[in-house]
Amino acid sequence: MQPAAFGATVVTDRTAEVATFYQQYFDLQIAIDLGWFITLRRGEADWELAICERGHATVPAAVSAAGESTHLFGFIVDDVDKVAAALAEAGVRLETDPVTEVFGQRHFFVRDPEGTWLDVIQLVAPDPDWLAANLPTT
Prior knowledge:
Blueprint: E1 6-12, H1 15-26, E2 29-33, E3 37-41, E4 47-53, H2 61-65, E5 72-76, H3 80-89, E6 99-101, E7 105-111, E8 117-123, H4 128-134
Parallel strand pairs: 1-4, 5-8
Antiparallel strand pairs: 2-3, 3-4, 6-7, 7-8
C-alpha cells in the first residue's frame, strides 16, 4: 500500500485557538473550516494537519477521553532560532532551548495550545567526525 497523502489530527476543545497557533508560527493556511473541524496546509503540500473538536461523533470516545496529548510532530523550518524567538516573544513556553545535534539537526521542543509536542527542526551539516564514525563511505 502506498498512501496518497498523510495527515495528522489534533483533538481539542479549542479548535480555533489551536489552528491560529499553527497559522501564526508555522505559516499554515486554512483549507477547510467547519468550526468543529479545521484543516491546515502549506501551499500545495501533500500533507495536512487537521484540528478536530473533542467529543465530536467522528472522534473515537477513547481519544476524546484522553487527558493529555502524546503526539510528537516534527516541523522542518528554515531558521529554528527565528521560530524560537517568535514563540518566546509571544509568551509561548519553549520546552527546550535550541540545540545543535552532531547528526545534523538544530532543534527545540515546544507544545501547541492543546499540549501536542512539536520538534521544530532546522537541517544543518552533521559533525564530520560523527559522520565518519556512523556513516562511513565504502
